Amino acid sequence: MTMRIKFTLLFLVTVLLSACSSHPENLRQCGTVSGYLEPDSHANLYRVVVTHLNGKPVISKPNYWLKPGHYQFTLAELIDNPRLKVALSARKTKKLDIDVVTNEQYHLAAQFNIDRQYTGNNSGYWEPVIWKKETLACELPVSLQE
């Protein structure tokens, strides 16, 4: 191989590798999923507890700082309303998929469906929702940059 071809190949490999490398500022980008705010019960919104994140059990906490991407949250509702007449066995967890975007905060809630009287084992009385979304500067803590 001629020197010119070797140089050209080396240059192309260098360009390709640098394009694939992650920049440090991109490693710290994140969004936040939160469950600490008390939603408006007058709007039939109630708090939830996160039980699983992407199928893995978690200890519920107020905020989840996450790299941008798709996540699945498993939630348990905390509906405290005298109109709730379902059996305890109907109070099951539900899943909510969220596409986390950099510098966005998503507030979780349980939407209590009051369109009709839910009784017995009918789990259709609630749905997990994002009740509030706002811009929030987020930088992933170094300890979470895996």
Descriptive labels:
146 residues; alpha+beta; four-stranded antiparallel β-sheet
What are the low-pLDDT stretches, counting only 5+ consecutive residues below 50?
A: 6-23
The share of residues in helices is 10-25%
Shape, principal axes of CA atoms? elongated
Number of helices: 2
End-to-end CA span: 42 Å
What about the largest sheet? 5 strands, mixed
Rg calculated over all Cα atoms: 22 Å
Going by helix content, strand content and strand pairing, the class is alpha+beta
Task: Note down, in words, how this protein is organized.
This protein is an alpha+beta fold and 146 residues long. The chain has one domain. It contains 2 helices and 11 strands; from the N terminus they run ααβββββββββββ. Strands 1, 2, 5, 9 and 11 form a 5-stranded mixed beta sheet that branches. A 4-stranded antiparallel beta sheet has the order 4-3-6-8, with no helix packed on it. The chain has a two-stranded parallel sheet with strand order 7-10. 18% of the residues are buried.
List the helices and strands and how they pair.
Layout: H1 3-20, H2 24-27, E1 31-34, E2 45-46, E3 48-53, E4 56-57, E5 63-66, E6 69-77, E7 85-86, E8 94-100, E9 104-112, E10 119-120, E11 126-135
Parallel strand pairs: 1-9, 7-10
Antiparallel strand pairs: 1-5, 2-9, 3-4, 3-6, 6-8, 9-11
Keywords: Signal
Signal peptide: 1-24
Protein name: DUF3997 domain-containing protein
